[in-house]
Amino acid sequence: GTPCHSLDIWESIVSQKTFETLRLEQFQVSATEPISTYGFRLGHFFNEHWYWGGAASGALLGIRGGWFVGGFQLGATGPLAGSWMYDVWIFYGGGGGGAAPQGGGMFGKAGLALGYHWIPTLALSAEYGYNHYFNGTISSPYVGVELRNIFYDLP
């Protein structure tokens, strides 16, 4: 009979390295008011180390119950010694709420994380960065933790 070629399509499909995270972060809304947020990041790699994606977070602790932000990120990540890894990124987005002094809501953020891979696809990271609202009064360093899952999906 005729050979079956139905599996030839799988040879043309390429998977894309992707990560998703769950994160907790704390920064200062003012000199006397901290806020803790929870959220996620989703990154799609366009080569082995560089990625782009989106992120969103909302208020977890503090008096700003309506706080929500979202935006886009560009970053680079890679291995250090052993199971250690680094991640650096910039973020541009908007948000606010909860009567916070965010001005028009547009802000930028930069971050640096040091993480450890328990297994090749799962890492826990500690991070440090800076939030700045362009026409508000919020401008503060932040600290956070992030749990990252790395996987391959179909683009």
| Total strand segments | 8
Give the biggest beta sheet: 8 strands, antiparallel, barrel
Walk across the major sheet and give the strand order.
1-2-3-4-5-6-7-8
Helix residue percentage = under 10%
Q: Count of helical segments? A: 1
**Head-to-tail CA distance between termini:** 35 Å
Poorly predicted tracts of residues: none
Structural class determined from secondary elements: mainly beta
The whole-angstrom Rg is 19 Å
Mean pLDDT: 88
How is this structure best summarized?
Strand 3 (50-61) and strand 4 (68-79) form a beta hairpin.
Structural write-up:
The chain is an all-beta fold. Helix content is 3%, strand content 68%. It is built from one helix and eight strands. It has one helix at residues 8-11, and strands at 16-30, 33-45, 50-61, 68-79, 84-96, 106-119, 122-133, 139-153. The protein has an eight-stranded antiparallel β-barrel. The mean pLDDT is 88.
Label this structure with key terms.
155 residues; mainly beta; 1 helix
SSE topology sketch:
Layout: H1 8-11, E1 16-30, E2 33-45, E3 50-61, E4 68-79, E5 84-96, E6 106-119, E7 122-133, E8 139-153
